[in-house]
Amino acid sequence: MGKLKPEYQWLLPAALDSVAPKRRSTRDWVIDVICFVLGYGFTLLATIDLLRPHPTVVPEWEGAPAWLIWLDFAVGTVAALGLWWRRGRWLVPLAVFCTLVSLFAVAAGITCLIVLFTVAVHRRFAVMVVFAGGAMVTNAVFPLIRPEGERPYWETMAWGTVFIVIVCLWGMVVRSRRQLVLSLRDRAERAESEQQLRVAQARSLERNRIAREMHDVLAHRISLLSLHAGALEIRPDAAPQDVATAAGVIRASAHQALQDLREVIGVLRADGPEGAPEPPQPTLGALPALADESRSAGVKVRLDVRIEPTSVPDGTGRTAYRIVQEGLTNARKHAPGATVEVAVDGSAGDGLTIDIRNPWPIINPPVAIPGTGTGLIGLTERATLAGGRLKHGRTADNQFALTAWLPWPP
Q1: For residue 17, is pLDDT > 60?
Q2: For residues 319 and 313, what is the distance between their CA atoms, to the nearest angstrom?
Q3: What is the DSSP annotation of 143-166?
Q4: Could you give the angle at which helices 240-269 and 153-234 cross, rounded to 10 degrees?
Q5: Which of 5, 80, 306, 364 sits most deeply, having the most CB atoms within 10 A of its CB?
Q6: Is the pTM of this model over 0.70?
Q7: Taking Cα atoms as reference points, which of 143, 116, 110 lies closest to residue 128?
């Protein structure tokens, strides 16, 4: 049976009523053969016994004419043949037929019980109650039409009631078990589907995170390239040594940018090992190298890290590193030549604070470095996703301040 959405789970019991198997399995054939043999076999035995002058198996129904016995045999045969179609849409008509003939038929007794059991298994409780009630009524009328020798009326009706109740309860147990199996199977399939969806979502979120980090990385690298290229453009008469140094920095930055881009493209194209960290994954321990790289490009950086980088969780450290990296990139773009002060402080439980400041630019830079305009927006989103907050803007002492707070669990 296919998967059902949660809002349609209440239809599951009804689905058993309207959906019939398209093809019988080997088990179904075996059960149908057994039911037919039991039903029609009892019809033959009961007819033979009724035709005997002096029955020895069960007491005789005295006064039964021959035509009634042969009619009993005929309807028992029809009912037994109907057992082959009891699994489909003919079950209800067959049950109605068996209910009517059970008013007088003896030979169709076992067949009628099998049909009632099938109704209890394949139909809703309300439908089963209707046919069970009909069986109770015919069970009460039958001893009046065909009294059973010296056996009292109430005894005959009581035994019939016991058989009807047992068959109905047995069918309800079988139906409940089938519903439980279907429900557990559907729940397992849905859980597996949801697990696959969660894995796909986690992979997509991880790749988006990598792409966001690569924006920061490439913006940092390309800003270095643009800064040095601009310096060469505005100083064509620079000393050969300075030109060679700038060209070396440009070459190294371009090589590193291509290397980072190659790594992230490889990650986005192929799934990595389960649980393996995706490069690049720098943390607070890489801040000195980041500051040295900016200093080599001519940026004045004052780095003040007042905590032990290894004590900060990796996730918080990565977010802090990206904030500092974007802050230095923005300073190079909008305030070239200014001194950038970076302070990192905090403690476990109180959180991690990053403060980046540089003088507010007085004039426009001689060589404008293009940007996407979404760097600070991306940093704010990154800090918010990490459970922190970020502020930026001009201060009262004419400085541009970028301040972030990140949670640091105790």
Answers
A1: no
A2: 10
A3: HHHS--TTS-HHHHHHHHHHHHHH
A4: 170
A5: 80
A6: no
A7: 116
Which residues 6+ apart lie within 8 Å of 15 measured at CB? 1, 4
Tokens 């349609």 sit on residue: 8
User: Any idea which residue has 């020798």 for tokens?
Assistant: 149
**Per-residue pLDDT tens for 246-275?**
777 777 777 777 777 766 666 565 555 544
Contacts 24+ apart (CB under 8 A), 93-96: 95/119, 95/131
- What is the pLDDT confidence band of residue 352, given thresholds at 50, 70 and 90? very high
Instruction: Give me the pLDDT at residue 239, please.
Output: 77
Q: Hey, what long-range contacts does 143-148 have (CB within 8 A, 24 or more apart)?
A: 145/103, 145/104, 146/61, 146/64, 146/104, 146/106, 147/61, 147/62, 148/59, 148/61
First to last CA, the chain: 50
Beta sheet of 399-406, edge-to-edge order: 300-305, 339-347, 351-359, 399-406, 389-394
The fold of 283-410 is Heat Shock Protein 90 (3.30.565)
Asked if 190 and 182 count as a contact pair (C-beta separation under 8 A), the reply is no
DSSP category for residue 338: -
Query: In the chain, which segments carry CATH 3.30.565.10?
Result: 283-410
User: Are 168 and 120 contacting, i.e. CB atoms less than 8 angstroms apart?
Assistant: yes
* CB-CB contact of 41 with 212 (8 Å): no
User: Quick check: 148 and 98 in contact, CB under 8 A?
Assistant: no
Beta carbons of 84 and 118 less than 8 angstroms apart: no
Q: Which long-range contacts (CB under 8 A, 24 or more apart) does 316-319 make?
A: 316/352, 316/386, 316/406, 316/407, 316/408, 317/283, 317/284, 317/285, 318/213, 318/281, 318/282, 318/283, 319/382, 319/383, 319/386, 319/388, 319/406
Report how far residue 44's alpha carbon sits from residue 73's, in angstroms, rounded to the nearest whole number: 7
Q: CA 274, CA 87: separation in Å to the nearest integer? A: 48
> What is the C-alpha separation between 211 and 159, in angstroms, rounded?
78
Q: Which two tokens stand for residue 176?
A: 């409940």
Q: Which tokens in the block code for residue 365?
A: 């830079």
Tell which phi-psi region holds residue 103, choosing left (phi > 0), alpha (psi between -120 and 50) or beta. alpha
Question: 300 — phi, psi (to 5°)?
Answer: -85, 115
- Count other C-beta atoms under 10 Å from residue 93's C-beta: 11
